[in-house]
Design brief:
The chain is of the alpha/beta class. Helix content is 55%, strand content 12%. The mean pLDDT is 94.
Length: 203
Amino acid sequence: MFVIGLTGGIAGGKSTVAAILKDLGAKVIDTDQVAREVVLPGEPAYRDIVAAFGKGIVLPDGKLNRKALGRIVFSDAAARELLNAITHPRIRARVEARLEDLKRTDPGAVVVIEAPLLIEAGMDDMVDAVWVVTAPEGVRLKRLMERDGLSLQEARNRLQAQMEEGERLRYATKIITTGGDFEATRASVLAAWQELQGSRKLS
């Protein structure tokens, strides 16, 4: 089994790249989905988050108000660190369990861990290669404003709350740029995939 850690800044195009890799045959573990699972009502992380941030972040149906929580943690570094300390160990444990399942059921698979905070959470020690997805800041700001309905300043705050792009790129074994159109992105991913398959046959 070969494990790729797919990471990059917010609105960089990770989900698009992950979807292309899935079409090519990779098994994708989406840590954003795992993060949503570990904070469902009844989960230990849910109880810890409500205890830390108060019932003002709970919706009438009992689930977390992710937008309200996002507003808090993207404007307060200490709050963000607290949330990460609650969620990251639970996310990692669940990802490790899924990797073990895949090792048993599909030992020859290429597995992609799609993780925005792969490096920040120390999950890069779980992977064989780090693929960083990147796009120019102006493109990311535009995507973020359109996708999440944010103002320019709110979008900038979210970008600035994350690891600096140059620092993240230092960890990359492969860089995928998504600043162009979909076909250009797909061509880049396909080239990286074919290179990986070739190197696996040689090893």
